[in-house]
Design a protein that fits this description.
631 residues; 2 domains; alpha/beta; 4-stranded antiparallel β-sheet; 6-stranded mixed β-sheet; single chain
Length: 631
């Protein structure tokens, strides 16, 4: 490795290693060891080959010196040829071992990334909905990317670097001191001139890089929000494009300025260090040549010392920043473990059983519930706040009890924020109750397997969320093994078959981010088709028609009729006209059931339901609707 490459390497590591002086517990190291366990055999081979490569790296300069001595002394040609051949063999061995070592490094590093990523991904999937409502998606994704890669660097780069460089350094010093302790001492005296600028300049460049990264992150956030379909619509309706452009340009200009300063700082730094290395080599040749002319040193030893000089500076500068690199990698491990240490609020019991076969009843028995505080479901670093909001636990449902018999429809109505959606989420076990019980077919949902609850209960929300994938992929999310005929059948039942058949690629047409290439009614009907494909025995509709116009609502209502036929259902409705045929209507206010009964009974009672109904329909519409109910 020549001096310029050494300079670049030392500066790079100084820039990218972020020092952290926090103590690390043995428990953290044991957990790291557990992740490294499956790669133990590869790690041993990796370290052995790194040591072997380090030994070969020191052997080459020594042999080169002997070749020079043989030439100067007029030795036989065969000796020179044999030494040259040995150097060639060592070079081939170094190249081969380098490839094998690189393969081992890549296998260990990528294997660790795979293990960490899948572990974190699976753990995050088990987190409650409250976790996702608080966490910034970008910060969470960063844990799966940047921090995982930072943790992997501890094994694939830092660990091997420490072992290999330490062996190289010891062998090089032994050989150099044995050759000429005076020249070795001089080389060590010049070392601070080489190492200290690297650390100082690296710190300065690291600050510039972090500032640039922050500006780039801000630009990425701005682009992500503004370039999404709803964000672009908001900017066009209420935003100021000129101001948006000016803000983006200001950040981009700052990134440009930092880039220019970074490039110049790097160039000055590299030039200075290459100059220092050239002066060091000049001193070695000068002092070594003097000793050689005095007969105190062989000419070949001078050449060997010059070659060994680069082998000395490279590992010393690398080892100087190894501690900081290791601390940086350990910080990444801790940030990954921080996510893994968040305990999911919902855990499946070891003896959990499946929902019994046949029609399913839904029962709420004295349910009380309050949403968990942030410190129970989130991390300050994931919310990008200094401290977590400790508020929470305030009871939002108070002694809620009702029962939907198999095949019945129970409707929930009431003011916004009354607790209707909370009831729906508890039925689907997106949260667990604080007291009381939610039961499916007489069995507490906490005693059921998560898979059986998902298979039994299907839900359609008001936003009709779809992934940025094809129609087919969004449908198969419900039942991956469904056939082509089954897909078209559910589309027909959801009143979407004609539309999908006219799309450019039919079932393989991509619906866009959150399904924005479809209208609101089309998105809802596609989510209903997905529900039909899942074939749940219980259906929950959370204001599925709340934001649709009358035409779209009529089409969705037809599709919902297919979805609800013969199934137990809990329907949350904003438009009371959609639930007049319900077997039981519950009026929810402030987390309590204040009225219950059929549409006719509740109207006759003249209470809160009648008040809600009157605000939506005039008296003549009420009488007409009562004579001819809408199903």
């Amino acid at each position: 490795m020549d001096m310029e490459v050494t300079a670049w390497t030392s500066m790079y590591h100084a820039m990218h290693a972020q020092e952290d002086r926090r103590p690390f517990s043995r428990a953290t190291l044991r957990r790291i060891g557990a992740f490294a366990g499956p790669h133990r055999r590869l790690l041993v081979w990796f370290l052995l080959l790194s040591v072997t490569t380090a030994v070969l790296a020191v052997a080459t300069p020594v042999l080169a010196g002997r070749v020079v001595d043989a030439i100067v002394q007029g030795a036989e040609t065969g000796l020179v040829v044999r030494l040259a051949a040995l150097i060639a063999v060592i070079a081939v061995m170094e190249a081969g071992l380098g490839l094998v070592t690189r393969w081992l490094s890549a296998s260990i590093g990528e294997g660790l990334i795979l293990h960490l990523r899948t572990t974190v991904f699976d753990h995050v999937q088990r987190m409650p909905i409250a976790f996702f409502t608080r966490t910034r998606t970008g910060a969470l994704v960063s844990r799966l990317n940047n921090d995982v890669i930072g943790a992997q660097r501890a094994f694939s780069d830092t660990l091997s670097g420490v072992v290999g460089n330490l062996v190289t350094l010891v062998l090089t010093l032994v050989v150099m001191i044995g050759t000429s302790w005076q020249i070795t001492l001089l080389a060590l005296l010049l070392l601070p001139v080489f190492v200290l600028p690297a650390r100082r300049m690296g710190t300065r460049l690291a600050r510039l890089e972090r500032e640039s990264a922050n500006h780039n992150a801000a630009m990425t956030t701005q682009m992500t929000e503004r370039f999404s379909a709803p964000g672009a619509t908001l900017v066009k309706l209420f935003g100021r494009p000129a101001q948006e452009s000016a803000e983006f340009e200001a950040r981009a200009r700052r990134v440009r300025d930092i880039g220019v300063r970074t490039a110049m700082s790097q160039s000055v730094f590299i030039t200075a260090l290459v100059l220092v290395s050239a002066l060091a080599l000049a001193v070695v040749y000068g002092l070594g040549g003097f000793y050689a002319l005095q007969g105190q040193l062989e000419p070949g030893a001078v050449v060997a010392m010059a070659l060994l000089l680069t082998r000395l500076y490279a590992p010393l500068t690398a080892l100087a920043s190894a501690r900081v690199e290791m601390m940086s990698a350990l910080v990444s491990f801790e940030r990954v473990f921080e996510v893994l240490d968040l305990k999911p609020l919902i855990a499946e019991r070891p003896d959990a059983r499946s929902v019994p076969e046949g029609p399913v009843s839904v029962e709420f028995d004295g349910v009380r519930f309050g949403y968990p505080s942030a410190d129970k479901v989130s991390l300050a670093s994931l919310e990008e706040v200094a401290t977590l909001d400790t508020r929470g636990g305030v009871e939002v449902l108070h002694d809620v009890s009702f029962r939907a018999e198999p095949g019945q429809m129970v409707a929930l109505v009431g003011s916004s924020g009354a607790g209707k959606s909370t009831i729906a989420q508890l039925a689907a076990r997106l949260y667990d109750v604080d007291s009381g019980a939610v039961r499916l077919s007489e069995t507490d949902v906490r005693d059921l397997t998560a898979d059986s609850v998902r298979e039994t209960l299907g839900m359609v929300t008001q936003d009709g969320h779809l992934f940025h994938e094809s129609v087919r992929a969004n449908l198969l999310l419900a039942r991956p093994e469904a056939s082509e005929e089954e897909l078209w059948e559910v589309l027909r039942r959801a009143r979407l078959a004609d539309l999908v058949s006219m799309l450019p690629d039919g079932l393989d047409t991509v619906v866009g981010e959150r399904g924005y290439r479809l209208s609101g009614g089309e998105r809802q009907r596609l989510t209903i088709a997905r529900l039909l494909l899942a074939r749940p025995r219980v259906v929950i509709l959370d204001e599925a028609t709340a934001h649709l116009d009358s035409t779209s609502e009529a089409a969705v209502q037809e599709a919902l009729g297919e979805a609800l036929a013969g199934r137990t259902s809990v329907v949350i409705a904003h438009r009371l006209s959609t639930v007049r045929a319900a077997d039981l209507i519950l009026v929810i206010e402030d987390g309590r059931i204040v009225e219950r009964g059929t549409h006719t009974d509740l109207l006759a009672a003249g209470g809160r339901y009648e008040e809600l109904y009157r605000t939506q329909f005039d008296q003549s519409a009420d009488r007409e609707a009562d004579r001819e109910p809408v199903h």
